[in-house]
Amino acid sequence: MLQYQNGRLFRCASESGARCVVIEQTRVGGLSAFAKKVDYMTQDGDIAHRLDDAHFFLLTKNEVVRVQTMAPEGDAEAPS
Fold first, then answer.
1. Cβ–Cβ < 8 Å for 69, 8
2. Residue 32, SS3 per DSSP
């Protein structure tokens, strides 16, 4: 079974002003082929795909969000 370790947090906003926090998760343990894979998801559980350094695409919402700030690792508070 795969396990994840949380990494950087990205505070993001869409063009409509909706805010979210995208969490970088690194796969650890389990099969060695997946050990270094990085996935992204929001605090609400939406799957995110990193488009570039400044944008994520939220798959379940079909929406692009722009990175506003990077939160320190372990700081999972929602943006104000």
1. no
2. helix
Tell me the per-residue pLDDT of 18-35, one tens digit each, with 9 for 90 and over.
999 999 998 876 665 555
Torsion of CA 7, 47, 18, 22, to 10 degrees: 0
Instruction: Give whole-number Cα distances, 59 to 26, 50, 72, 75, in Å.
Output: 19, 11, 25, 24
Residues contacting 62, CB < 8 A, separation 6+: none
Distance CA 58, CA 68 (A): 15
Q: Quote the pTM value.
A: 0.77
Q: What is the DSSP letter of 77?
A: P
User: Could you tell me which residues are beta bridge partners of residue 54?
Assistant: none
pLDDT score for 4: 83
- What's the CA gap between 43 and 41, in Å, rounded? 7
